[in-house]
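Page 37, continued from 36.
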């Protein structure tokens, strides 16, 4: 068994402590150089490039005419997927829809700023959005649920999913089920950087979109960065990461159980248990072999790689305040507060994309349908981004309306500032020249 990394903060220099905050995609330079030719090929060759990359990168056999999932494939998916899985998808979609309906902004509001002068906002859906659903280390109908539902709630007219095909050229059946139940009937068989390029430029089959959202590998993140001038790349969502914060009121075995949840996503994930209790830390470390014995070989391999590597393990802090500081400095994608009184700690945490409270709210429940969105900013971007939401699928227009009675006062002040800033046309537009036309 790989030794789990154990970090005693009291023994670390500031430089060593800072190294704990690195993620797998912190430096994307190598990935950017690899995806650049992929993007260029999709832009110039279209479907032919998608077919070639499906074969070479995804080991999937496709033909240009089969890049879009047919309606018959959707129908067949409902026959392939077990009834209990479909039921769980329906349950999750219902909760996610209820949550995101509450986020939906009022279509328009206006406030009287001064007598006769009104200003406000109007919200309209983005015309077309691509949803990226990864597949490389597993199938993720839950990502389909989390991306498609808020897009549908927002009223986006054109929603398309892009997801890597299986070796036989099919789409994961549960993903098709989730797509249809969420209201999306357009699914393209393309993954990785080539999918991002297809969404940006379009191909003979794939319609270009104005925005792309959804988590992905460093290759996907790099492609989004390169194409940010062509398509809105959405919030930065890379490989999974989590911090399990535990005080001294819980059993370390429980903390270890939840530590493995995000660590099993892949060797490029990040996962830390952060606690000021040596008892909790030691109990967690001792319980990991038992938890691993219940997992599949692949997921054990992934989580061991994370917890013994440079982006995971157990962090023992000298105090509760140092635990809070570590969490806020890290700004995790997922944060669990394991405590019998989690609300006592909540006020001290300001930098986390998702905060799950108490021993009955593991990441598993949030990932599969508590309601809040599980597509979250990674790599410390929780400092300035929030979870995917309805607001990611709408755009805001400012509305202004000045009546004839309010105009003179506003015009006088506008003339003064226009003259000061040296903009003569600005000044003339609110001068007596305008009065001749009015």
């Amino acid at each position: 068994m790989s030794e789990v990394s154990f970090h005693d903060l009291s023994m670390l220099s500031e430089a060593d402590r800072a190294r704990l905050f690195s993620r797998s995609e912190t430096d994307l330079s190598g990935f950017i150089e690899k995806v650049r030719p992929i993007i260029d090929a999709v832009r110039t060759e279209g479907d032919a490039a998608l077919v070639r990359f499906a074969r070479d990168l995804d080991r999937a056999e496709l033909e240009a005419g089969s890049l879009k999932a047919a309606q018959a494939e959707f129908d067949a998916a409902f026959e392939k997927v077990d009834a209990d899985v479909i039921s769980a998808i329906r349950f999750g979609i219902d909760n996610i829809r209820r949550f995101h309906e509450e986020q939906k902004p009022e279509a328009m509001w206006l406030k009287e700023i001064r007598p006769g002068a009104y200003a406000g906002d109007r919200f309209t859906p983005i015309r077309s959005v691509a949803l990226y659903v990864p597949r490389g280390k597993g199938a993720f109908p839950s990502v389909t649920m989390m991306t498609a539902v808020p897009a549908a709630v927002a009223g986006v007219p054109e929603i398309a999913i892009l997801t890597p095909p299986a070796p036989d050229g099919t789409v994961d059946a549960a993903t098709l089920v989730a797509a249809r139940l969420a209201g999306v009937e357009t699914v393209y068989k393309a993954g990785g950087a080539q999918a991002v390029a297809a969404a940006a430029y379009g191909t003979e089959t794939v319609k270009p979109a104005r925005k792309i959202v959804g988590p992905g590998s460093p290759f996907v993140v790099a492609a989004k960065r390169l194409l940010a001038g062509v398509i809105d790349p959405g919030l930065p969502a890379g490989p999974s990461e989590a911090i399990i914060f535990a005080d001294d009121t819980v059993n370390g075995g429980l903390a270890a159980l939840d530590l493995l949840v995000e660590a099993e996503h892949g060797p490029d994930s990040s996962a830390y248990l952060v606690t000021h209790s040596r008892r909790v830390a030691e109990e967690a470390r001792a319980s990991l072999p038992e938890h691993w014995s219940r997992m599949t070989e692949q997921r054990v391999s992934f989580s061991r790689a994370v917890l013994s590597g440079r982006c995971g393990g157990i962090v023992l802090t000298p105090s509760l305040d140092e635990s809070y500081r570590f969490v806020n400095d890290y700004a995790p994608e997922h944060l669990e507060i394991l405590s019998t009184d989690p609300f006592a700690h909540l006020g001290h945490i300001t930098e986390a994309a998702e905060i799950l409270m108490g021993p009955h709210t593991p990441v598993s429940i949030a990932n599969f349908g508590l309601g809040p969105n599980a597509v979250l900013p990674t790599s410390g971007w929780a400092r300035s981004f929030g979870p995917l939401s309805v607001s990611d699928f709408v755009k805001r227009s400012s509305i202004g309306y000045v009546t004839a009675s309010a105009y003179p006062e506003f015009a006088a002040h506008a003339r003064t500032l226009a003259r000061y800033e040296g903009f003569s046309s600005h000044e003339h537009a609110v001068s007596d020249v305008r009065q001749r036309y009015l």
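The longest strand covers residues 117-125. Flag for discussion at group meeting. The chain has a mean pLDDT of 95.
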